[in-house]
Design goal:
The chain is mainly alpha-helical. The protein has one domain (6-192). 75% of the residues lie in helices and 2% in strands. A two-stranded antiparallel sheet has the order 1-2. Helix 5 runs antiparallel to helix 9 (126-146) and helix 9 (126-146) runs antiparallel to helix 10. The radius of gyration is 17 Å and the shape is globular. The relative contact order is 0.17.
């Protein structure tokens, strides 16, 4: 049997947990383990790239604050993201979760085909993760200023998305692309503003 890839493993784990009572949000985050920060970064980066969301006045600032809070929290607590008890205990209906997972599975397979365990040392060690998080902090802070320029947030949003995928897939090639996007965001910030 072929080795399961990271996102397929997460979907499989969540499917196994979906019983008659559903799954709590805390169980969902626990299934992501240390990949929950990567998942959050990927989702927030993607949302910023959607013109309807990223183009809203103040959206880059709100996303920047969310990213900075999640990064700070990930250093204060090992494991997945911390959630308030009310959110952590909230249950998602098993049928709704299975429907979501059915829709997410093709996308996870696409991401898994594009990513892999390449140059893992760039994504897995403590020092590598610290460098990634440092770049994510720079990108999040740059969102505040680049949000003043039309389409200025694109390099930073792409970098956040790529770093999120890199953390989830533990893919060093994506880390290198994220470093390049960080450089592009810094260049954009110094040139456009």
């Amino acid at each position: 049997m072929a080795e399961q890839r990271p996102l397929e493993t997460v979907i499989s784990d969540l499917r196994d947990q979906a019983d008659g009572d559903g799954v709590s949000v805390g169980d969902f985050v626990a299934a992501l383990e240390d990949r929950s920060l990567g998942g959050l970064l990927a989702v927030l980066g993607f949302l910023l790239l959607v013109p309807v969301v990223g183009g809203l006045p103040g959206a880059p600032v709100v996303v920047s604050v969310l990213i900075l809070g999640a990064v700070a929290q990930s250093f204060l607590q090992s494991g997945g993201l911390w959630l308030p008890g009310v959110v952590r205990e909230r249950r998602v209906d098993a049928d709704r979760l299975r429907g979501f997972l059915d829709r997410a599975e093709p996308w996870a397979e696409r991401v898994d085909r594009l990513t892999g365990h390449r140059l893992g040392f760039l994504a897995e060690s403590r020092a590598a993760r610290l460098a990634i998080v440092g770049c994510v902090v720079v990108l999040a802070l740059s969102l505040i200023f680049l949000g003043l320029v039309p389409a200025g947030i694109v390099p930073a949003a792409l970098g956040i998305l790529v770093f999120g995928l890199a953390l989830m897939a533990r893919d060093g090639v994506l880390v290198l692309i994220g470093y390049a996007m960080t450089g592009a965001a810094i260049w954009a910030g110094t040139t456009l503003i």
